[in-house]
Specification:
Strand content: 15-25%
Distance between the termini: 20 Å
Helix content: 25-40%
Number of strands: 6
Radius of gyration: 18 Å
Largest sheet: 4 strands, mixed
Number of helices: 4
Mean pLDDT: 80
Order of helices and strands: HEHEHEEEHE
C-alpha cells in the first residue's frame, strides 16, 4: 500500500464519520435526559457558574456557515415563517415575534466576520442569518444547567484536499 500524503488524507477523511458516530454512541446514552420534541421557552434563569462550562466546538465547511434567514413571515423556509405560520420551534421567538436570546449559551464565531455574544440569530453568513448553532445551542442550553460555550469555525468554498 502506498504511503503518500494523499492516501493518508483520504483514509483519515474516510474514517471521520465512523469516529463521530462511535463518539455519539458513547456520549448520548450516558446523558440520560430525554430531549422533548418541542423545547420550552428559555426561562432567562442565569446559568450555574459554579460548575465547569460545557464547551462545544462546531467546525465544518459551507453547511456550518449559516444561510438560514430570519425575516419574511410570508416566505417559506424563513425562521419567521416556521415559527408564526407553521407554528414550529416556538421556543426561538417570543409572542411579539422577536427572537429569543439565550443568556446561558455564549457563542463565538471565529470566521466569516468574527462575532461573539449570547446565542440568537445573527451568527450566520450575515448579521440577519443563522446556522446550525441556533438549534443546537437552544437544545444544549435547555439540557445543561451549566454555562454553555459554542465555538463556531466555518469557511465555505474550500476543499478538503
Amino acid at each position: 500500500m502506498e504511503n503518500s500524503p494523499m492516501t493518508k488524507r483520504k483514509r483519515t477523511v474516510a474514517a471521520l464519520p465512523l469516529v463521530c458516530m462511535l463518539a455519539a454512541l458513547l456520549v448520548v446514552p450516558a446523558a440520560g435526559k430525554d430531549i422533548p420534541a418541542q423545547l420550552p421557552m428559555p426561562d432567562n434563569t442565569p446559568p450555574n457558574t459554579s460548575e465547569p462550562v460545557k464547551v462545544y466546538i462546531m467546525m465544518a465547511q459551507s453547511n456550518m456557515v449559516g444561510f438560514g434567514r430570519v425575516a419574511g413571515k410570508n416566505t417559506n423556509g424563513t425562521l419567521a415563517y416556521l415559527t408564526k405560520v407553521e407554528k414550529k420551534f416556538s421556543n426561538l421567538v417570543d409572542d411579539a415575534a422577536n427572537c429569543n436570546v439565550r443568556n446561558d449559551v455564549w457563542c463565538v464565531k471565529t470566521t466569516v466576520g468574527p462575532k461573539q455574544g449570547w446565542l440568537q440569530p445573527g451568527f450566520g453568513a450575515r448579521g440577519d442569518f443563522f446556522g446550525p448553532e441556533l438549534g443546537f445551542g437552544h437544545v444544549m442550553g435547555w439540557y445543561h444547567d451549566e454555562m454553555v460555550l459554542l465555538i463556531k469555525a466555518s469557511q465555505g468554498n474550500r476543499s478538503l484536499r
